[in-house]
Amino acid sequence: MRIGIIGRGTIGGALAAGLERHEGVASIDATTRASSHRNVALAGASDVIVVCVKPRDVEPVVREIAPTLVAEQVLISAAASIGVGQLREWSDDRARIVRVMPNTPARIGSAMTVLARERQTCDLALETARSLFATFGRTAVVEESKMDAVTAISGCGPAYAFVVMEALIDAAIALGLGYEQARELVAQTMLGSAQLVLEGALHPAELRHEVATPAGRTIRGLIELERGGLRATLINAALAAAG
Known about the structure:
Elements: E1 2-6, H1 10-18, E2 27-31, H2 36-44, E3 48-51, H3 55-65, E4 74-77, H4 84-90, E5 96-101, E6 111-117, H5 123-133, E7 137-143, H6 147-155, H7 157-174, H8 179-199, H9 204-211, H10 217-228, H11 230-242
Parallel strand pairs: 1-2, 1-3, 3-4, 4-5, 6-7
Antiparallel strand pairs: 5-6
Helix pairs in contact: 6-11, 7-8
């Protein structure tokens, strides 16, 4: 496959680097959003075109490349809030369209990428996109109506996790640990906890109970989290991001 990526930001750059590991990829080319002539040339020379620009820039980019698209190509959009129906309209329905939502851990091959299954989405196009994004971590397929929820959880989720990690690092420093040691302790604790959830069958609440022994230090910390409204705040943050 010849891959063309329009947009060399955080996600576009990560895709360009990571797809080099995919055995089915013969070549990768990338342009910036503003490279109008290059975008058209890239679209014409690619089997799969991945649009990784900001949502406000998707329509002009897709409209400018639309005349060069053909039915055998796969057009993938990684932009939040842009539906498959809009992409079909802007591209004159000239390519097979897939909508995806990766996240920034794609930079290290640990992404969670969700692909939208829309009624008219071709199974072959969906599988092509899934195979490409599996290079960067886990993939899942949902109905397109769930993509705003996906954006709020796995798309925005790294930012929520970083805030929690930053707070714990600050707490560790306040308790006398140096920054580097605090960073390692917090990051590995988060990583290991996530792996327990992914690789085991226990609900996170059950895992939490395993740590919180009676009259222990953990339960005192958990009480403070409840008093501060951490869970409600995280839920409200995700609901706001789903918009």
